[in-house]
Amino acid sequence: MRKLNVSNAVAALMCAALMLLPLYSAVTGNIFILTLFTRIVIFALAAASLNLIMGYGGMMSFGHAAYLGIGGYAVGILAAEGIGSGFIQWPVALAVSALFALLIGALSLRTRGVYFIMITLAFAQMAYYIASALSRYGGDDGLTVYKRSDFAGLINLSDRNQFYYLCLACLFGGLYLIWRIVNSRFGLVVQGVRSNEQRMQAIGFHANRYRLVCFVISGTICGLAGALLANNTDFVSPAVMYWTRSGDLMVMVILGGMGSLFGPVIGAIVYLLLEELLSQFTEYSGLILGPVLLLIVLFARGGIMGLLGRMRRG
Amino acid sequence: MAETKMTETLLAVDGIETCYGLSQVLFGLSLKIKSGEMVALMGRNGMGKTTTIRSIMGLTPARSGAIRFAGEAVRGLPSYKIAKLGIGLVPEGRQIFPNLTVRENLVAASGNRFSASDPWTIDKIHALFPRLAERTNNMGVTLSGGEQQMLAIGRALMTNPKLLILDEATEGLAPLIRDEIWSCLSMLKERGQSVLVIDKNVGNLARIADRHYIIERGRTVWSGTSEELIAEPDLQHKYLGI
Amino acid sequence: MPDPLLRVDNLVRRFGGITATDNLSMEVVPGELHAIIGPNGAGKTTLISQLTGQVMPNSGTIRFAGRDVTNLPSYKRSRLGLARSFQITSLLKDFSAIDNVALAAQAHDGHSFRFWGSARKERHLREAARAALERVGLGTRADIVVSQLSHGEQRELELAVALATRPQLLLLDEPMAGLGVTESTRMVALLKELRKEVTIVLVEHDMEAVFALADRITVLVYGRVIACDVPDAIRKHDEVKRAYLGEQHAVTRHG
Amino acid sequence: MYLVVEQLLNGLQFGLLLFLLAAGLTLVFGIMDFVNLAHGSLYMMGAYFAATFVAWTGSFVLGALMALGATLLLGIVLEYVALRHLYGRDHLDQVLATFGLILFFNDAVRLIWGPAGLALPLPAWLTVPVQIIPGVYYPAYRLMIIVVALAVAAMLYLVVMRTRIGMLIRAGASNREMIGALGINIKLLFTLVFGLGAALAGLAGLMQAPILTVQIGMGENILILAFVIIVIGGIGSIRGAFMAAIFVGIIDTMGRAFLPDLLRKVLSGAAASTAAPALSSMLIYLLMAIILVLRPEGLFPAAKR
Amino acid sequence: ADSVKIGFVSTFSGPTAVIGNDMRNSFELALDHLGRKIDGKPVEVIYEDDQQKPDVGKQKTEKLVQSDKVDFIVGYIWSNVLLASLKTAVDSKTFLISANAGPSQLAGELCSPYVFSTSWQNDQTPQAVGTYMNQKGVKSVFLIGPNYAAGKDMLAGVKSTFKGQVVGEEYTVWPSQLDFSAELTKAKNSKAESIFVFYPGAAGVQFLNQYAQAGIKQQIPLYTAFTIDELSLPLQKDNALGVPGAQQWVNDLPNEENKKFVADYRKKYPGLRPTFYGAQSYDAANLINSAVVAVKGDLTKKDAMKAEMEKVNFKSVRGPFKYGNNHIPIQNFYLQDVVKDAEGQLSLKTVATIVKDDQDRFHDKCPMK
Ligand SMILES: Nc1ncnc2c1ncn2[C@@H]1O[C@H](COP(=O)(O)OP(=O)(O)OP(=O)(O)O)[C@@H](O)[C@H]1O
Ligand SMILES: Nc1ncnc2c1ncn2[C@@H]1O[C@H](COP(=O)(O)OP(=O)(O)OP(=O)(O)O)[C@@H](O)[C@H]1O
Ligand SMILES: [Mg+2]
Ligand SMILES: [Mg+2]
Questions:
Q1: Which of B67, E62, E258, E308 could form a disulfide with B75, with the two C-beta atoms 3.0–4.6 Å apart?
Q2: Residue from E276, E303, E305 nearest E292 by CA
């Protein structure tokens, strides 16, 4: 981490900018940029969690949006049932996400590669259809969260700045956690398994156990993002679990750079910002966004972070 | 084929430099093979033998220098064009097609591009390696290491090349089969086949190859005939560690 | 003879119509270097894979250090002290050489559900790894990414990885293959040294090495043991000569 | 009983419809090992081309042929300009690149043809129901789809599994470098095969346009279905894809046809009426998940890589 | 403020952009008719694309409220997008006018002084169809609809008014189902006298294709809600001929405003025809106009504006209507049919008035009295 190269510089700059954003918003009176970035930060957290299993663990989950939904529904359903305390809602959101990940992971990890992609997709789609069938909680019309999670006055989630900083803290916390994990014994094993499972088994690692734990950690972090998202949107609906959403998360990760710590954050910022900005200029944003993605793949191996990493050498 | 004159240069590599990314591996390496000649490439692990062959084949294109094969400048050509000019490669590490059956591996790229009078056919390969005949409908991936090696050799022969390149082709073969390969190579040489061979068995090489090149850190440091090689045990000790 | 360290009884493994291991029984006693030879496709690699658990037998039993390991998954066998090298190189290609070896050391140093500290900073793992690399002659290449090592170097790394698990029984599948003359010589020397520390099963087609090293040799043909004896007896064994050695190796003598 | 037979027939023909969809993808993804999300876009382009050309020429057959040619060409151009650089790369790079193409094609179509979609009416001779056995009528056009799907299946199987070209494609997919070193111009071959895959996508699009719709985004849900088919069948196996398509077609149709009544017998009315639709919506995914849990490499695993 | 700022949230990308476009076209036309000024002030409209995703719609709504500080927000095709966006608008006391979506919550517990609808509550249209089927003496029906909230609402709506027997009820996978042959076979074999379906957009085209091709059209008549409109008709073509549906607005309603709306629309957008989505958007513009005029441009007088809008003090293209306590219209529903018009083109035609002054069944649940 000590090396001062372009990609690290950009990452540091990015973190600083994210920290100072509310200040900018207050000075210029541009509230919306804060709203926009709150959402981006939440998606960045979700993408970072996906990166943990995809970039480091080699598990291409095409159902990661399911955890956004599960975390969100945990908050939404508890709120609807009159339990407004965040001290209950959030642990439940994390626990349910973890449990779901454990179940899905245990079943899915029998498969590899594209089969894994498709089986995770299948489970996420099932979650989607189950949520759509929850007519008590709005079915696919979704569920309005009337009151944001209540943390006994410690922090007020309805306050824009406070909520933004909470999301940012979660993002940074998540990234730090991922960074530690990746460099830990556990992380090395997971990365080793990605590289050559047979070899790891032969030297004495129970590959799937490590994979599964990694999968659960990732799902839990994404569940946290889901809880944040539900509070941010004041609303949850099955639509957050639809496969296109999982696809969006994947795109963010690959775009930013798989297997690099800040890659998914950059990916989320670029992708969502581009989407927002382009839609201001033109209704045909795909005509620009599409080729941009293609060009990034063609000319920047390893996504934007990969590109930045090579800039030094020219 | 038998008529080809030993005087004609088939392959001429002249001062090539090759890099993997930023690290340079070959530093102005040169070698020459005449038609009908069998040439050996020797050197310790990691000295650049395989890289030389990859450069010749255009798999890792040389950055500078010249490579001529059968009268054509081939540096910079895509590898399939170079191969089409008549090079058959038995690559290091076998590289058979795992998702094709043994038979398919043999016939997929086979052909008799230069209308050899007595071309290799699947039956001849089976006669050479009876083991392959027994496994003809098995997927490549299920073969044992040695069987894969036989398959790789058979596959290269099936293209009926002007120049056969063997990169550690006897690795992992049982002694009987290995002997078989060596006698096959002598037989091929007799018929006028040009061969470039990398192998660690210096004894056998000295017996059947015409000339030898020793590579050290990406340069040819010595070249000469078998007699010269045997005459200079120092050389073997210095560069090959024997 | 002491109690066998490894004991295989009536092992059978079929692939479709092929019987790769055919009712095979054998023993490896502690401290010996036991070579397994046989023609290509005789089932040597398949046997090793069954011993270490990559391939499960159709029937038969494998006992290791007095324990029935027939149905244990490979990672558990590794923990019991079985280690192997692969004939077709199988390494973590995008890791550096030392990481490959350090991971092997880590696997046998308590559990790896440690999420916090940096594993690359654990001194004892790194040092163990470095020692193993030095031993196989890759000391100077420790920080090179595996995919950038030459073929021969990768073969040496295979052995270093197996060594780093500090096994009781080391199963080596053609460690000599792909090595140059110098490196082969060095490998033979290394194995001579190693055999003092650990029991070794060696699969190899390099007869000079086999005859120089082995205490006993088992000969496999079509999945069956056709002979199991000391080197000199094997050398003279008619059937072995016919099926495998040919005349050349039968007559030349070494050391 | 009669109802069951008719539903079976529906399932069979739906399965063949699915196979038609999956055919091009089997070639490009299953055999060439290239994850082409834009397959759905090519499918869409096939339908739009067909609707346009049929309207121009006034002939269904002529328009369809022109549309086939156009998608073939489009596929080749796409491959030549961009996608050929991605063969050796990680699957996920291919995912991102072709995802970009989806965005591009959707908006390009909206720009060119407008957001409203197009109609591709059938010629009169294809609208009459045909009597297949006494008393049972079947839409003529659906029969035609069955015939085309079977023909495509046979052609694919023969080309890929029984010819030298097929071997070369499979070899090239597993080791491009080596096949080149054996003197094969794998680039050209892949371009042509990709074009063929595109044409098959186009064929699926134009064949289905008259019974489905010609709409922006029509390829996306279908793409998922096609992937489901291929994965259930076992990647790389044409036979697998074919069987899986029919299997999924029948299970899905039968499930939708009989599951609700079955559930109603087991559960209370209210529970059944919420559970049944949810369950039949999930059916395909449930099926895939179960199959993959039991057989992690699909029903007909092709040889391991 | 020296201008009237209006935010317009609808879908402008993807396959359903066609609806968004029609809504925008009609809204623009309404502004043209108003001279692009409201109470003498210039009008500024900001169109935002919700991509048919609830969270995007919510974000766009927030942008309009926080960043653009609009006075009114109009639009919303989809119930879930509207529901996700509602809180933002209501909390900021910005008037929101739903020009299409009509989930039951909006009519019931979520009704708000700041929210008005120029469309309907989801159930009203199918209820009208059910009533019409009673009027025609239909004895039994087979119901088919997509398995999502609106689909269930629609079938429930029919059932709530239809007096005959419901012999079957099928839900299909939304939005991905391609093939309806299983359902059609079931319907055919159920011996039902009629089939009712709800399939909006492309699915409607697909359903009608397969219904006609399977030869069932000759055997069992079809009744629809939101399945045939001016957007889908060009794709459905003859398959839609003679298939009835119900709507609160049809292009040939004989009032002056409507004639002007339809004629000018077709003039301004050659080749296109207005739809009920457009009519609702057109009304929304006029509703806004009436409110701003009433307070003489003082947009801070929210109560007065609300009171004015409740009076429906403008001429709607659907003819006169009133607002219920929940700000959902109390209005007529008409029977529409597909016929060949004078130009030989397929078009929708009003056949009869099915119900007069229909009020949704959720208004009791609305706390506003
Ligand atoms: N893909 C690669 N990227 C980077 N460096 C490489 C790559 N392949 C080989 N090298 C390096 O190039 C040098 C020469 O390798 P090469 O494979 O040509 O050696 P060799 O003489 O064939 O050795 P061996 O006998 O072990 O096969 C080695 O130092 C190796 O580390
Ligand atoms: N997965 C498999 N499926 C089918 N056949 C297999 C499979 N694995 C091995 N075989 C066959 O079993 C036989 C034994 O193979 P094995 O790899 O054990 O041979 P080996 O003795 O190690 O040979 P070599 O000396 O060439 O390495 C071979 O004929 C091989 O083709
Ligand atoms: Mg080499
Ligand atoms: Mg072997």
A1: B67
A2: E305
SS3 A84: coil
DSSP classification of residue A150: B
- Dihedral sign for Cα atoms in the order C74, C77, C82, C83: positive
Residue type, position C80, single letter: L
In the structure, do chain C and chain B come into contact, i.e. share 3 or more CB pairs under 8 Å?
yes
Q: How far apart are CA B24 and CA B51, in angstroms?
A: 10
Tokens read off for A229: 């998202």
User: How many of the other CB atoms lie within 10 Å of CB of A134?
Assistant: 16
- Tokens encoding C61: 């039993």
**Which tokens is E149 given?**
């909230």
Residues near ligand 3 ion, CB 5 Å cutoff? B 50, 92; C 151
Tokens of B80: 């399939």
| C-beta separation of C20 from C14 below 8 A | yes
Indicate left, alpha or beta for B18 from its phi (over 0: left) and psi (-120 to 50: alpha): beta
Q: In sequence order, what DSSP letters do the residues of E236-269 get, joined into one string?
A: HGGGGTT--EEES--TT--SHHHHHHHHHHHHHS
Ligand 2 pocket member C21 (CB < 6 A): no
**CA atoms within a 13 Å half-sphere pointing along the CA-CB vector of D133:** 4
Residue of B nearest to C88 (CA): B145
Indicate the DSSP class of residue D121: P
The answer to whether the beta carbons of residues C52 and C85 sit under 8 Å apart is: no
* Cβ contact, residue pair A237, E13, below 8 Å: no
Contact D278, D256 (CB under 8 A): no
Q: Which residue has the tokens 């319907």?
A: E187
Q: Which amino acid makes up residue B81?
A: K
> Alpha-carbon distance D267 to D246, whole Å?
30
pLDDT in tens for each of the 314 residues of chain A? 445 678 889 999 999 999 999 999 999 988 899 999 999 999 999 999 999 999 999 999 999 999 999 999 999 999 999 999 999 999 999 999 999 999 999 999 999 999 999 999 999 999 999 998 888 898 888 898 989 999 998 999 999 999 999 999 999 999 999 999 999 999 999 999 999 999 999 999 999 999 999 999 999 999 999 999 999 999 999 999 999 999 999 999 999 999 999 999 999 999 999 988 998 888 898 999 999 999 999 988 888 998 888 775 54
Q: What's the CA gap between B163 and B83, in Å, rounded?
A: 10
**A155: which DSSP letter?**
-
> Tens digit of pLDDT for each residue in B138-150?
999 999 989 999 9
CB contact set of A231 (below 8 Å; sequence gap of 6+): A75, A145, A148, A149, A157, A163
Backbone conformation region of residue A302, classed left if phi is above 0, alpha if psi is from -120 to 50, else beta: left
Evaluate whether E301 touches E90 at the Cβ level (below 8 Å).
Answer: no
CA E138 to chain centre: 26
Kindly list the distances between the CA atom of residue A173 and the CA atoms of A41, A94, A210, A224, C217, in Å, as whole numbers in the listed order. 12, 15, 22, 11, 59
CB atoms within 10 A of CB C66: 9
Instruction: Quote the tokens at residue D66.
Output: 């022109």
- A221 in Cβ contact with A68 (< 8 Å): no
Nearest to E64 by CA among E82, E48, E41: E48
Phi, then psi, of E190 in degrees rounded to 5: -80, -10
The residue of chain E with its CA nearest to that of A135 is: E149
pLDDT of residue B94: 87
Identify all chain A residues contacting D229, using CB atoms and an 8 Å cutoff. none
Size of interface D-E (CB pairs under 8 A): 112
The tokens describing E138, both together, are 């239909």
Residues B38 and B195: beta-carbon distance below 8 Å: yes
Task: Give the separation between CA B183 and CA B179, rounded to whole angstroms.
Answer: 6
In A, which residues are within 8 Å of C74 by CB distance? Answer: 201-202
